[in-house]
Amino acid sequence: MPELPKQMSADEILNEWKEGYKTEPDKYKEKLAGVVYNSWYYMVPESEECQKYPLTCLCDFDINRVIEEMVYGKEIPKEKIRFNFFDTLMDEAKKYYEAKEYFLSLVLYATYIEHWFNDLINCLAITKNLDDDATEKLFKMFNNEARFNVLLPIFDLPKIDEDIKNDLKILFDTRNYFVHYKWKPKDEKEGAEQIQKFIDYSKKAPKIIEYLNNYVKQNIYNREFLKKFFANLIYRQSGIVVNNDLITL
User: Fold this and answer.
1) b/e map 85-97, b = 16+ CB within 10 Å
2) Theoretical Cys-Cys bridge with 134: which of 6, 92, 104, 130, CB 3.0 to 4.6 Å?
3) What confidence tens digit (pLDDT) does each residue in 158-177 have?
4) Nearest-5° angle of CA 240, CA 241, CA 245?
5) Is 172 in contact with 67 (CB distance < 8 Å)?
6) Distance in angstroms (rounded) separating the CA atoms of residues 71 and 116
C-alpha cells in the first residue's frame, strides 16, 4: 500500500512560505499577507502597545514591513516617517502641571487630544477607502465640536459622553485664549475665572484622554472594524485583496 503524503503542520506551512518569499517574493507575498491579516485583527486588542496608544498602533501598520520582519526575524526600519509625539506631550504636560505651570500644561494636553482626533480621522478614512486628499479634507472640514456631532455618526460610531463633550469644548476654548491670545477679561473676576479654568482642566485632561482611548478600545477594537481597516490598508499599501478565506493557518 503506498505511503500517504505527510500532512504539514501550520508552522511548517508558514516556514515554507517564509523561505519561499526570500527567493520568490511575488509568489508568496499574498499568502503571507493573509497570515498577517488574520493574525493582526485578533492580536491588536490584546497588544500592550496598542492598549497604550490604540489609534497610533493602527496608523503605524505597514504590511510590507510586517512581512519583511516576519520573514527575516528582525525589526525593519520604517520607510515612511510618521511623527508621534504622544509620549512627549503627555510627559511634558504632567511636568508643567506639577510645576503649577497650568497654562502650558493645558496647551500640551489639548495638543495631545488634537493629535488623537487626527489619528481617529485617518483610521476612519481608511475603512471607507478614502485617499489622502479626501482624508485631508476631513481634517479641514470638521472642527472639534463637529467631530462629535457630524463625523462620528457618519462612521456609525456612538456618541461621546455629553459631560466629556462639554469638558472638551471648555478645554479647547480655554486653550485658544492662550494660543491665540484672545484672553481679554472684562474685569478681575472674569480674569480669575479664566485662570481657574486652566487649573481645573489641566487637572481633568488625563481623565478625558483616558476616556477617549477607552472609547477606541470599546468601539473600534472590534473584529468587524479591524477586519475592514486592515483589509483596506493592506490593499492600499500592496494591492493585495485579503479576506477571511484567504488563509487561516
Assistant:
1) ebeebbebbbebb
2) 130
3) 989 999 999 999 999 999 88
4) 125
5) no
6) 32
Cα dihedral sign, 140-123-243-5:
positive
Stretch 213-228: mean pLDDT: 91
Contact 71, 21 (CB under 8 A): yes
* Location of C-alpha cell 501550520: 10
pTM of the predicted model, to two decimals? Answer: 0.84
